[in-house]
């Protein structure tokens, strides 16, 4: 379920990444950063 939700919010997260730096996002939400890495691996 978590992976599916992360896929749905993929667009929103992508927009956030454009506005905020990668390191900033990881610090604010390490879990989201990890999910992003998994998505990249896919």
From TrEMBL:
It comes from the Eukaryota. Residues 8-29 have a biased composition (Basic and acidic residues). Residues 1-42 are annotated as: Disordered. This is 985_t:CDS:1. It comes from Paraglomus brasilianum.
């Amino acid at each position: 379920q978590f992976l599916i939700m992360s896929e749905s919010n993929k667009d929103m997260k992508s927009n956030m990444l454009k506005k905020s730096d990668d390191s900033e996002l990881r610090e604010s939400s390490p879990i989201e950063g990890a999910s992003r890495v998994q998505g990249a691996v896919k």
